[in-house]
Structures are given as structure tokens and as C-alpha cells.
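Request: How about a record?
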Amino acid sequence: MARPRKNAAKVQGSLLAPDEVAEIPVEEQPYPLPEGWKWAYWGSCGDFIAGNAFKPDFQGKKGLLYPFYKVGSLKFSDNKGYLYAIEHSISEETQKSIKASIIPEYSIIFAKIGEAIRLNRRSINEKKCCIDNNLMAFVPQKTTYKYVYYWSLGIDLYKYTNATTVPAIRKTDLEKIVFPLPPLGEQQRIVDRIESLFAKLDDAKAKAEAVLDSFEIRKAAILHKAFTGELTAKWRELKNITLESWSSCPLISVLKENPRNGYSPKPVEYKTNVKSMTLSATTSGFFRPEFFKYIDEEIPENSYLWLSQGDILIQRANSLEKVGTSAIYTSGEHEFIYPDLIMKVQVKNPHSYKYIAYILSTQATLNYFRTNATGTAGNMPKINQQIVSNTPIVVPSSEEQQEIVRTLDRLLEKEQQVKEAVENVLSQIGLMKKAILARAFRGELGTHGASKNSPQ
């Protein structure tokens, strides 16, 4: 992909000097700025262009003159935020016939309707394009595009939505957002400094993510060793037990009863006596009690829907990579019921539930679920009670089961500690980026007062 030239002012062509922009009233200025900077309205630093509605007839075409972007196109090919997903395009004739706006290259493109996670996506287009009516573009005129892009990353546009059923941003509200405007040379020095610091953080992030990605591989390898007998080979040798003592059977053989689907009544927005856990409560492989909804229904005390410690919860419907994910329920008695998208299984031997839960988390079992999942295109893959009941498992003696569980608990706890430490590092990197951006637009990155001969 071609990269923009270093001199942003030349790229944008019509860039005007910031000193031509009027300063906003003192009472509207959020904080003092360095000498030579000024507070301006965002709308006075360029133009906002709204997208156009595109009929399905114009969508799905590729290779035409103007890339046509939708909200899903706001994905990054690198940390500079350039658009890369050309999912659609339109011809010049179509553009003229439907009077679609042309967005100049190196504009900042963002969603203007939807929830916060959607509204806070940002991208830069490297060539002229068209955008749909859920997007808005800002065309810089008195500031460099990268400066505006990085500044916009620190702005929560959701705060500027109007109070409607579907949150949306109006052009007039965007134009009134206050904007810290330094001289052009300072803008470029700030961008260079941000990108230098971000590059170092991104290098650290890549290394941390590599460790995190290898967590599942290491975990899968440990579980494989456990259920092929390798993990307890020395233990069996000391006990004079052979691997042939293990038996194979379907999961239903070790359960109290058939797996049972849950119940998903309509949730309410107020507190009640019944909490219904959501699918997200088990997606991590651990039970997370913060994911629930209140329901306003009486659930009998003896209902199978109430959860008890040691119950194993299996996601019977989800994306293909998540279907069959399981977790042990670890919260209180009669505190939660479970939803229809989850199946509950209870193990006969109360001392074996952790052993069975570990088997269900192995790659072999997950592959079995995914291979046997049913579902049509556009629907979530599903596994049914018969599939779960027939899950093949291996069963050593109760004593060896406990030894396997003790060994797995020890090894996987260490792995989990590493994972949590890495996740904390990634979280800190995100916070550090936010801090860098906050300081950058206060003039606190050591760029203010640098040589006027610095690159612009």
C-alpha cells in the first residue's frame, strides 16, 4: 500500500495557516495552551461531509473508480489508522447520477450513528472515496490530517450524540467541539513524537500478544498430555498401574441425568430476586458472576434451572470457535439460573466434576463439538443434548483422576498467572497511549519551542 508523503501540508494542497482561524471565547477554553497555540472550534479548521444512502444495487461491486466505505470498513492496517477494507466501489457515472459526495484523500472518517464502541472508530482514506450515510468525514483545511486523527482518538464522540432511540451525531454539534490548534510546524512535531512513542509501545504490545497467543497452545498441550496418560506416567509407575487400566465411554455414562437446556425469559431493567446468567458468563472458560440479567419471574425452589457448585455449563450455541465452551459454576446455591443457549451437566461422582470439566476443555472435545455442530448459514452453530451425551471421554481410576486434577490445577494456575500478567501489560499499554495523547494536545511532549526548521 502506498504511504502518504511526509509533508502533510503538501498532501492536502488547500491547507491554510492556523493563524487565520478565530480563537474561541476565553470562558469556553478548557485549559491554558502553550504560547502560539489557540483554542478554535473544530468546524473552523475544516469541513464535515456527511455520507450518502446507497441502494443495495450499488453495493458489492469492486474495482470501480471510487471506493465505497461502510462502518465495517473502519479497520486498521497499521497503527496509523488507514482504511484498508475496500468492500465496495462505485463508478464515476453512478457517483454523479446519485449525487454522492466525494471525500478527498486523507480525510478523517468516523461513524456518526450507533453505540459508543461504534462511534469511536476512526480511519483515514488514502484516496478519494464515497461513504455511506452512517459515516461522516472531516476534511482538514487548517490543520494536518494526522494531527486531527490523533487528536480525535482522545475524543469520545458518544458524549455529543443527541437524545434519540439510536444515538447519532449532528454536524452542528461536531462543529462546536473545541480544538487545540498549534502552528503547522508544531503539529508535525507532535505527530512525529506520538508516532515514535506509539511505535515503541506497539513493539511491546506485539511481544505481549505473542505470549498471550501462545497461552492457548501451551494449555492445549498440557491438557493433551493429561488425557493421553503422559502427565501421570511416573505416578502410575510408582503405583504399578498401567495405562490399560483406563476405559473409554460416552459422557452420559458419568452423568446423573441427561444434559438440560436452560431458560431465557425476558430480562427487566430493575433489581429482582432472580438473576439469569448470560452467555458471556462462561465464554472465558471460567464462571464470571458479573454477567447476568434480572428477570421478574418466580422460579420454584426445586427447579432444575437453579445452579449449584460443581455444575458444568456448556455453551450449546455460539460462533464456531466458541460453541462447546464450558465452565464450572462456582457461585452460590440458588443464586443464578442459566439461559437457553447453555446446557447444564451434573457428574455422578462429586469428586470427578473437575476431571470431567478439564476433559470438556480439551482441543479434542472442542473439535468434536465443532465437527458435529449444526446450523445454517447466518445462524449460530449449535450442539444438542445427544451430541453432548455422546462426547467420548477416557476414565482412569478415581485416584488417578484426582492426581490428574491436582497436576493440572498446579500447571494451569501458573499459566493463568502469566496470562493475567500479560493482559495487565496490554491494558497498561492502552492507558499509556491515552496518556500520551492527553499530554500531546496540552503541549507537554517536549515538542513546543523546537527549532522552526523542524520538518513540517
Notes: The mean pLDDT is 88. Residues 184-227 form the longest helix (44 residues).
